[in-house]
Amino acid sequence: MRNLKIDGKRLWDDIHETGTIGGTAKGGVRRLTLSDEDRRVRDWFKAQCEALGCSVTVDAVGNMFALRPGKNPNLPPIAMGSHLDTQPSGGKFDGVLGVLAGLEALRTLHDNGVETEAPFLLVNWTNEEGSRFTPAVMGSGAFAGALKVEDVHAKADRDGVTFAQAIDAIGYRGAAPVGGRKLSAYFELHIEQGPFLEAEGKTIGVVTHVQGMRWFNGVCTGVDGHAGATPMFKRADALLSVARLVDRIDKIARSHGPTAVGTIGELTPAAPSINVVQGEVRFTIDLRDPKDEVLEVMEAEVRAAAAEIAAMNGTSFVIERIWKAAPIPFDADCVAAVREAAAISSHATRDCISGASHDAAYVQSVAPAAMIFIPSADGLSHNELESSSFDDCAAGAQVLLDAALLYDSRLAGR
Ligand code: HGY
Ligand code: MN
Ligand code: MN
């Protein structure tokens, strides 16, 4: 395998250039899926790939595929990718790093006139974050056949705008069919979004699994009341009930050991007012653990806690599960390629189970896949202060390129 070196400065400049598209005052990025900011960064991405001679296709849910031909057109491509959409108060690196590192890998091949055995494919997956339209990893989920295209198109955001309306508004409903596209392998570079690599002084995370996760929409119903005239004994306070459930979910997650997590990320009174006892509150629940059987127990405990709280407070809960993703182990050969690639650059590594969902998890259900992590400063992500270092971004991009080339040389029988 030739000793090809990525250009860390070019990658770093791209990260900061794209960070201005939807950039926030605090140095973060707000680039919701299918927003005008998303359109702008998609246009930028398409132009960069076409400048390299890649052909760019877009499928009916907006997934973007940049293809670089290889020697053997009969081989399914080796893919790299991630996502360009962000959380409402997200950072410059979540998802973006994986797409831009893949772009840097293609540029390095192009600059050195390297012809790979298999074609190489760079992917920008639509709506990985699942913040505007739930669930998360929507584009890769549709690609893997886990979500129906018509269901994706019908999803509506909080303002009632459907996915179909939003994607048409930015002109990214592509003509290509969704899924059914064979891949030889898929590699995704991503920031860890947690504290462990930094705490242990490791540069590269060799991601062996993505943990399981379950999302819920909840509604708690009580009785609207006058904050002044309604005695405490007479109340059916929905906000109090949800507040108690928040505390119980925290306790349930902590009771299942260091890997289980439970979060209420949205809590929306129907008619917020300083002097009204709230009669209806909508909320969301996010439960995760590497073991599905633990998630099963956690879900049952959350439902039991809600029933107990409702009985005590004279309120009622409806909790609907809207997403269930099983824990995913990555392909052993792809993980081995990541491990070997990290060794080429002599990086200290740590095996990781991803706490966050990633497009690679759905891709693994249709093609061999693996992921590479680099450290997140202070373990921060989904936070405007999210950051990773120049050296770690460059290290991750080098490992991404080397892992893909190692896999390519295997396919060539070298
Ligand atoms: O929720 C997640 O783990 C991802 O950031 N969408
Ligand atoms: Mn991400
Ligand atoms: Mn994210």
Structure description:
- The protein is of the alpha+beta class and 414 residues long.
- It has 2 domains: 8-211 and 327-413, Aminopeptidase; 212-325, Alpha-Beta Plaits (2-Layer Sandwich).
- The protein is 35% helix and 21% strand.
- It is built from 12 helices and 16 strands.
- The strands form 3 sheets. Strands 1, 2, 3, 4, 5, 6, 14, 15 and 16 form a 9-stranded mixed β-sheet that branches. Strands 7, 9, 10, 12 and 13 form a 5-stranded antiparallel β-sheet that branches. Strands 8-11 form a two-stranded antiparallel ribbon.
- Helix 1 (8-18) crosses helix 12 (390-411), helix 8 (238-255) runs antiparallel to helix 9 (292-313) and helix 10 packs across helix 12.
- The chain is elongated, with a radius of gyration of 23 Å.
- The chain starts with 7 loop residues before the first helix and ends with a helix.
- The structure holds (2S)-amino(hydroxy)ethanoic acid and manganese (II) ion (MN) (2 copies).
- One manganese (II) ion binds next to loops.
